[in-house]
Amino acid sequence: MDKLIIKGGRRLTGEVAVSGSKNAALPILFTTILASGRHEIRNVPGLRDINTSIHLLETLGARVEGRSGTIWVDTSGLDQVEATYDLVKTMRASVLVLGPLLARFGRSRVSLPGGCAIGARPIDQHLKGLAAMGADIRLSHGYVEAEAKTLRGARIHFDLSTVGGTEHLLMTAALAKGETVLENAAREPEIAELAEVLNGMGAKIEGAGTDTIRVLGVEQLAPMSHRVMPDRIEAGTFMIAAAITGGDVRIRDMRLEHLDALAFKLQDAGVEVFSRDNAVQVRGPERIRPVNIKTRPYPGFPTDMQAQFMALMCLADGASVISENIFENRFMHVAELLRFGADILIEGNTATVKGVRRLSGAPVMATDLRASASLVLAGLAADNTTEISRIYHLDRGYERIEEKLKGLGADIERVKE
Ligand SMILES: CC(=O)N[C@H]1[C@@H](OP(=O)(O)OP(=O)(O)OC[C@H]2O[C@@H](n3ccc(=O)[nH]c3=O)[C@H](O)[C@@H]2O)O[C@H](CO)[C@@H](O)[C@@H]1O
Ligand SMILES: C=C(OP(=O)(O)O)C(=O)O
Fold first, then answer.
1. pLDDT tens, the chain, 417 aa long
2. How far is CA 2 from CA 361, 414, 415, 416, in A?
3. Catalytic residues per the record (predicted)?
4. Which residues line the annotated binding site for phosphoenolpyruvate?
5. Do domains 2-19+230-416 and 22-227 have the same CATH topology?
6. Any idea which ligand is nearest the CA of 163?
7. Using CA atoms, how far apart are residues 150 and 176, in angstroms rounded to an integer?
8. How is the chain split into domains, by residue range?
9. CATH code that applies to domain 22-227
10. Cα distance from N-terminal residue to C-terminal residue, the chain
């Protein structure tokens, strides 16, 4: 297992480029199931989750050339309809193959993803939607088994905003007979991008990016050629890296409009954020001001940035209140941030962070993807050395993070444990 050694206290400066989005690329990869033929996907980030998805597609019978950058997925020989526990347990998004396999082959069998570090994460909304489209759904020995001779369009109202649920039903409805209306749909940019991909393949989707999406099913879809959008969470993490080190960083290949909620909060904290020459410049202040945040579905403050923002607030000049409203257990980073000398009190879904003058480096453990990112940020700002173990979590979602941070002047090394 690898670990990261960070010698903190260096001000980050220079330029960094953002990779393709993990959360956009994953459903796009699974969308290849819907159309037989050779698909081209560009700007695919080199990540553990991408490798898992490619492996899953290969298990189903697809042939994949390339692992990152531009990859080609040929789904002509795809003939398996099962995603096993081994694959689904390492990456929850694997469950998104259930509907596409069902739409193409009339049946599929996928392991239930189960809970994970940040919460129980049920898939009831996904299954409710597939059932409304006429699928016969059975749960047996930890697997979801789905069958449908014909999938029919349906009106589906989500009980809550679900990104994966919206993506799953959008993909499936593209090949259903008649019209599907998704109400109370999630509005994340990754969903608008998925609809754009599907429409490019011949689907008829309107309203993606709003809370009501209409899908008119078509008989067949054609293979895609698509470039994945930049990763807004990686971009946001670099923005905080600049802020927390009092640095001055130019971030290329990011879309600031996808990060409005974060950018406004950073500005409230005294961080300068502005667009310049197709890039975003971020300058940290001498002392961070405390700012409260509440995580919400897009366009609200993203839960995937909560841990990183908390690391920043640990050094604020006063107290801030952070409420996590999406996942019930997404404060795993708190116990680790305390090791740096942070002052944080959790009560239910709220953390009160009393800023301290300095953090001091510590041995810490990564517990999930964004928690790991918050520890890297704290380590960059802390005095002395920080050692982060179990960074395989970080490798799920950040491409070459230590190289990118080194390029900005950080003293960070990956070593084998
Ligand atoms: C691969 C990917 O894109 N992952 C993102 C996606 O995860 P994911 O798609 O799993 O997250 P959801 O938006 O579905 O989950 C939001 C909330 O709804 C609940 N829920 C969801 C589905 C369901 O059927 N029933 C139910 O109760 C979940 O437990 C959670 O509390 O959106 C999350 C919320 O922005 C992000 O943190 C993840 O990074
Ligand atoms: C929670 C995340 O991912 P996943 O939904 O794949 O667990 C994330 O990207 O922060």
1. 899 999 999 999 999 999 999 999 999 999 999 999 999 999 999 999 999 999 999 999 999 999 999 999 999 999 999 999 998 998 999 999 999 999 999 999 999 987 678 988 999 999 999 999 999 999 999 999 999 999 999 999 999 999 999 999 999 999 999 999 999 999 999 999 999 999 999 999 999 999 999 999 999 999 999 999 999 999 999 999 999 999 999 999 999 999 999 999 999 999 999 998 889 999 999 999 999 999 999 999 999 999 999 999 999 999 999 999 999 999 999 999 999 999 999 999 999 999 999 999 999 999 999 999 999 999 999 999 999 999 999 999 999 999 999 999 999 999 987
2. 18, 7, 6, 4
3. 116 (proton donor)
4. 22-23
5. yes
6. 1
7. 7
8. 2-19+230-416, 22-227
9. 3.65.10.10
10. 5
Task: From 95, 232, 226, 386, select the one nearest 240 (Cα to Cα).
Answer: 232
User: What is the Cβ-side half-sphere exposure of residue 416, based on CA atoms within 13 angstroms?
Assistant: 0
Give catalytic residues, as residue numbers.
116
* Ligand 1 binding residues, C-beta < 6 A: 23, 26, 92-93, 119, 121-126, 160, 162-165, 186, 303-304, 326-327
Q: What is the pTM of this model?
A: 0.98
Q: What angle do CA 396, 194, 398 make, to 5 degrees?
A: 20
* Closest residue to atom 7 of ligand 2, CA basis: 92
To test the pocket of ligand 2, the residue of 22, 331, 396 to mutate (highest count of ligand atoms within 8 Å of its CB) is 396
Q: Is 305 in the pocket of ligand 2 (CB under 6 A)?
A: no
DSSP, res 97? G
Distance 86 CA to ligand 1 centre (A): 21
Residue 400 backbone phi and psi in degrees, to 5: 45, 45
Q: What whole-number distance in Å separates Cα of residue 8 and Cα of residue 47?
A: 25
The count of other CB atoms within 10 Å of the CB of residue 11 is 16
Structural Rg of the chain based on CA atoms: 21
**CA atoms of 290 and 313, how far apart (whole Å):** 6
Tokens 């347990």 correspond to: 89
With respect to CATH, is domain 2-19+230-416 assigned 3.65.10.10? yes
Tell me how far the alpha carbon of residue 160 lies from the centroid of ligand 1, in angstroms: 10
Please, what's the largest Cα pairwise distance for the chain? 64
- Tell which one of 370, 392, 398, 399 to mutate to probe ligand 2, the residue whose CB is within 8 A of the most ligand atoms: 370
Which residue, judged by its Cα, is nearest atom 19 of ligand 1? Answer: 121
Pocket test for ligand 1, best of 52, 121, 191, 262 (most atoms within 8 A of CB): 121
Ligand that lies nearest to the alpha carbon of residue 49, given by its number in the listed order: 2
